[in-house]
Amino acid sequence: MNTKILVVEDQFIEADNLRSILRKGGYLVCKIARSVPEALQIIESEKPNLVLLDIYLKGELTGIDLAKILRDQQIAFVYLSANSNKQILDAAKATKPYGFLVKPFREKDVLVMLDVAWYLHRQNLGLSGSGKSGPGSQPAHDIKEIIGSSKSMNEVLNEVKIVGTSDISVLILGESGTGKELIAQNIHYISARKNKPFVAVNCAALPANLIESELFGHEKGAFTGAIDKRIGKFEQANEGTVFLDEIGELPLELQVKLLRVLQEKEIEPIGGRKKKVDVRIIAATNRDLEEEIAAGRFRLDLYYRINIFPITLPPLRERKEDIALLADHFVRIYARKENKIITEIADHVIQTLQNYDWPGNIRQLENIIARSVLLNNGPILEFLKLPGQNKSNVTLPETRIKSMTENERDHILLVLGQCNWRIYGQGGAAELLELNPSTLNSRMKKLGIEKKYFKHDSN
Ligand SMILES: Nc1ncnc2c1ncn2[C@@H]1O[C@H](COP(=O)(O)OP(=O)(O)OP(=O)(O)O)[C@@H](O)[C@H]1O
Ligand SMILES: [Mg+2]
């Protein structure tokens, strides 16, 4: 099982406790939200399958308000609460949750209730067993616009058009946050497969022993713990597109299996029979695959197979002319979300944005704008907020003339220092830097930053 779960809980200890229970139970905990607005942001970016939410939360909105939104979006949820009064419980029940967990709860109760909730939810949506659609596949209206008018982005847009109308494999290369997934979705939605599923698989987010069944499925009883038959992502995506994100992280033995699937166009579910599938592959990575090949971590034959049409996304610092456009785009989106009217971005803000190096690229710019929108009340956006800082009028640091690598190294060290060298979890360096922990680890390795032991990071 690798259901993605969001925990909405404002009590830190409680949340941390839940996180470790859920991880042990095989769930992927995407993030912990402390409030409803935070939860909504995470839901948009992470698209969890299940939400575990406290009824009482800090801020104006309660868990019940969030539950109504989840209901509308057909996301399964389970409440979590200490004993509440009858009125509140009735209001909560009216939102039709899949369950209530009353604090203090036992580990087993949490896992059983969530398993049941997830099962019922899939039944309700008519998904169980059919595997036609499911987590990871998205409706066409989800598609977001690609912003950018720099020369390098125009080239990318041209490539997207060319390759979109064909059916060949595409390899998207670029640093974290440069828009690899966005480009992959756009290619799918202009292709002839647009009315079929687009199924994304993040090869880095899955534990190695689950990837095979996640990709190719398994039969009931194929191995200990395989209580039900599982339809793999390749079969879910039949006639559509599989987006293999972070393909550089795929373990070698699965690279062999993937290669075979690509060559023979058939999958073999664990414990089951081979079946034909018709999928288009779009892969992405922020690693240098040639370097990975030289180091023996990536198979050359698979590389040839997927590297038919590479598209390289430029880092944001190399196309600074797009920064104002992107900032404007995100201000519009987030102002609308927050019901604010912001018509302009102050010149000094644009200047600061353009002077910054953007190690986290567009994702980082988007997040900074999202927070800044919250801080600004007038029609002109005047304040910026850096990740991990609490003061409201902090502007981004001026850049000295340092090399890109030096800058990146300094920045990572600074953030590591701020969070006591903790990488994982809420408030950990990976979150503050808005990177995947695996990406952060590999960057640290590359930059020669040695890890310091932190007790919660041992798993
Ligand atoms: N050109 C663009 N125009 C508008 N939004 C963009 C653009 N590029 C990226 N974004 C937005 O930035 C965010 C990050 O993009 P995306 O997830 O596609 O990046 P990524 O390269 O897959 O990153 P990672 O390696 O961290 O997974 C998304 O919210 C995406 O919609
Ligand atoms: Mg991505």
Would you kindly provide a brief summary of this structure?
The protein has 459 residues and is α/β, with parallel strands linked by helices. The protein is 42% helix and 12% strand. It folds into four domains: 121 residues, Rossmann fold (3-Layer(aba) Sandwich); 173 residues, Rossmann fold (3-Layer(aba) Sandwich); 66 residues, Helicase, Ruva Protein, domain 3 (Orthogonal Bundle); 54 residues.
The CATH architecture category of the largest domain equals: 3-Layer(aba) Sandwich
- Uncertain runs are 128-141, 388-400
Percent in strands: 5-15%
* Shape type: globular
Bound ligands:
adenosine-5'-triphosphate, magnesium ion
The structure class reads: alpha/beta
Could you explain the architecture of this structure?
- The two termini are 18 Å apart.
- About 6% of the residues have low confidence.
- Helices cover 42% and strands 12% of the residues.
- It has 4 domains: 121 residues, Rossmann fold (3-Layer(aba) Sandwich), CATH 3.40.50; 173 residues, 3-Layer(aba) Sandwich (Rossmann fold); 66 residues, Orthogonal Bundle (Helicase, Ruva Protein, domain 3), CATH 1.10.8; 54 residues.
- The chain is of the alpha/beta class and 459 residues long.
- The protein is globular and about 60 Å long.
- Bound molecules: adenosine-5'-triphosphate (ATP) and magnesium ion (MG).
